[in-house]
Amino acid sequence: MFPKARNIERSFRYIRVFTALVVAGSMLLCAFISWLAFRAGERAQDRIYILASGKALEAVARDRKDNVAVEARDHIRTFHELFFTLDPDEKVINTNLARALYLADGSAKRQYDDLKETGYYSGIISGNISQEIVIDSISLDMSNYPYHFRCYGSEKIIRPSSLVTRDLLTEGFLRNTSRSDNNPHGFLIERWAILDNRDLKVEAR
Q1: Are residues 195 and 140 part of one domain?
Q2: What are the pLDDT tens digits along the chain (205 aa)?
Q3: Cα-Cα-Cα-Cα dihedral of 146, 147, 150, 155, to 10°?
Q4: CATH label of the domain that carries residue 193
Q5: Of 42, 60, 78, which residue is a domain's last?
């Protein structure tokens, strides 16, 4: 009788130990799965998916400090392309210049006013002239704020009878500002000046 009772008690002890091990293992497994899910959630937050032509493309989100120089150069490039790309269409000119002036301060507005006052834009329209810009390089000093830059490029002025190529050198400073639909990079060009804009060659068409 007593040996049977001891065997039953031993069996219950084994069952309790086994149950405790199963519960502890289940808790550890749940904790591990929760940790994996948390890590996966963190990684998912660093990814952006862009839908292009029916395909989902993955982009990795990064801090702005990792891309400041890239964004700054693109801001400078965009401003110059908008400011100097002209066609003999008043609406196109006004649209491009309005977008360009959101990216710079009053120094760019003064350049625009001076050109407008001399009849430059009227001459573009009446003479059926197109103007294009090619950016060669952008020198950017990120060691001091606001960031100084120089933009090197050339202009092509396409007239009905000739093609004029002009050298273009500008400089200015970049300061941080709020991002918006009109200024997606969050920079503002200050103290912008045209240092060189002389004719390089004239070709007959």
Answers
A1: yes
A2: 555 556 667 777 778 777 888 888 888 888 888 888 877 766 666 566 666 566 556 655 555 566 889 999 999 999 999 999 999 999 999 999 999 999 999 999 999 999 999 999 999 999 999 999 999 999 999 999 999 999 999 999 999 999 999 999 999 999 999 999 999 999 999 999 999 999 999 999 8
A3: -80
A4: 3.10.450.230
A5: 60
